[in-house]
Amino acid sequence: MIRFACDKCGASLGANDSGRFIIKIEAYAASGPLVFSSEDIEQDRSHELSSLIEELSTANPDDIEDQTYRNLRFDLCGPCHKKFLIQPLG
Ligand SMILES: [Zn+2]
Predict the structure, then answer these.
(1) Taking a C-beta distance cutoff of 8 angstroms, is the pair 38, 28 a contact?
(2) Nearest alpha-carbon partner for 8 in 18, 28, 23
């Protein structure tokens, strides 16, 4: 039998326990539509692209992901779930 633990208080939870709540959170950068002028398109951006590629090749993948998208999942017991709903951001 698969056992879980509440990610907040550590209480033991069963896989099919009706007192186990799953919290899924997505965090991603808000952005509007990309707008390019004809001048933007006509400019030579090869130097900027090379710099960006070099920067990304040495960057920590977790840091890059943190700046773009992160998917989080938590198991909570009933009491911790109740507290989460009252104040989701702690
Ligand atoms: Zn708990």
Answers:
(1) no
(2) 23
Å from CA of 81 to ligand 1 middle: 7
Q: What is the pLDDT of residues 70-81, one digit of tens each?
A: 999 999 999 999
Distance 76 CA to ligand 1 centre (A): 5
Distance 78 CA to ligand 1 centre (A): 7
Longest dimension (CA), the chain: 62
Distance 68 CA to ligand 1 centre (A): 29
Cβ atoms of 75 and 4 closer than 8 Å:
yes
pLDDT at 7 over 80: yes
Total-model pTM: 0.69
